[in-house]
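Students often ask why we bother encoding 3D structure as a string. The short answer is that it lets us treat folding as translation between two languages. Here is a chain of 337 residues written in the first language.
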Amino acid sequence: MKHTTISSQEMRSVLASLFTKYGFSKEQANTLARIHTESTVDGIYSHGINRVPVFIDYVKQGLIKIDNTASKVASLGSIERWNGNKASGVLNALKCTDRAIDLAKTHGLGLVALRNTNHWMRGGTYAWRAVEQGCISILFTNTIPNMPAWGGKENRIGNNPLVIGIPRKNGHVVLDMALSQFSFGKMQSLALNDQELPFEGGWDNNNNLSKDPKAIIDSGRALPVGYWKGSALSMVLDMLATLLSAGNSSHKIGLEEKETSLSQVFLCIDPTTFSDTELQDKLLNEIIQFTHDSTPMTKGDRTFYPGERTLTKRAKSLKEGMQVNTEIWEEIHQLLS
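And here it is in the second language, the structure alphabet:
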């Protein structure tokens, strides 16, 4: 598969022009271009540059309402409900993350539950945003049913991504995980490069567990992370997102032709509410150092804390550019022409 080296500056410029063409304001287009570029810079191509054609398709179909924005519908102290009004999932998530941060700075803890929104692309975007403003974050979203509940055959649960961010002086901790063994975006990226999964990631059409991303995408049946444990966690996160936002469950989302009108939760905590911030950093460093000191199973390998490799990848991409799939890049230029 051919790749083209693209700088972050070029990608942002091209994407800003593309989003402007399809009706977003200059400010919105620049924000969307920055978020998609930052995800690609961090190595998350599946929810960065590779997702752009799908995003534009949703705009063209009217599934993403470019003239709408998220609005608050209820509040009680540090807890609020918002309606995404089917606007851009990225713009909605940024707005709700910032609101949860503001609530946390005021009350120590802030929670915003959002309904009727669209795909937020890389969930880690919002955890990085929170930690850079000094806040712990716990964020999650439901999805269309794309996994069988453990023991079942048909898809009944979503791979509902869970994101947790913890601010730290010597490198923020950010966990960003789908509840499928591999996200569908990751499998699509590997399929584009004719690569196999390192571990079994789902079932093929013959009900066999497979490492072939194309076979799993074709069947549409991903494997829950942790088997029955991931299945249970998916259901609980779906319940929480649905109840707190009074929005759609994965079941209701699955009744639509496309994945839209999702429910999400943005919970932020201001750790400076406590007066022991130096102790907090010391405790985090002890945990990380204990893990780093582990003897590797493979010579030359090592362990990492969540988000550690992202910082390394980010620095490399900003210096050397990003290896973008040529077909994807050409498709984006075709959409722009």
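Translate back mentally: The chain has a mean pLDDT of 95. Keep this in mind for the problem set.
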